[in-house]
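Database export, one record per block. Field names are fixed; values are copied verbatim from the stored entry.
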Amino acid sequence: MMGVLTQRKIDAHCHVLDPARFPYAADVAYRPAGQEMGDARYFQAVMACYAVEHALLVGPNSGYGTDNRCLLDAIKTGNGKFKGIAVVPNDCPLETLLELKASGVIGLAFNPSLHGFEHYADIEPLLQRLKALDMWAQFQVENDQLLQFMPMLKRVDVKLMFDHCGRPAIDADTHQAGFQALLALGREGRAVVKVSGYAKFSKAGFPFPDVRPFLDELVQNFGTRHCVWASDWPYLKAPFRLDYGPMLNVFESQFSASDREVMLWSAPKQHFGF
């Protein structure tokens, strides 16, 4: 069986940052620098080293906010390697969404873990527009934040994607309310979850043994067809050094070869239309 480093794969969550060509927005709270940065050309070199054939690029709140120029340029020049998740104002009109979709954007990112619920309290009309266009609503929540969004998510049957295993509270068990709400969405077949971002919620450090109970519950409730692997490259605000290869080796140690094939390739290929 082919090892994980050479197994064909799709990276379901990564960023490109190129402030030399696309300067950061003036009003952003955090400006990535040094090894946190990586432009699309360099990331394609990383992809080639690890048999990553496609990637879903996520517009970073850090650096760019709602400025999607760097993201769109990467998609345009990527020769079919990339699709995107954009960041837009909450009142983004249908016409702009249509333009983004035509440019290779398949959904929008919402980041309550950074901005809180109140920042997104008025997004229900935007979710309705995403549903009408068959686009994804991608959420990065943490702890029990998902509970605040559940009333509107019950009203709007939009396609849902959740970053970084839902970022549960690692000190609590898997019965915590927010994580249980995420598992329920998985059982309903309404959502996809990204198996990624361990450093954002683990307290044990590399190789993150404390995430295992949460991974087991995610796979049991979502099924591997609705779980996708992601690197989170280039590891913005990482609390310690992270690298692509070692993180893939951790993933290999956690899942069987057959499960990895689904999460690395066939599931993201189906969901993202590569």
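Remark 1: The radius of gyration is 17 Å.
Remark 2: The chain has a mean pLDDT of 97.
End of record.
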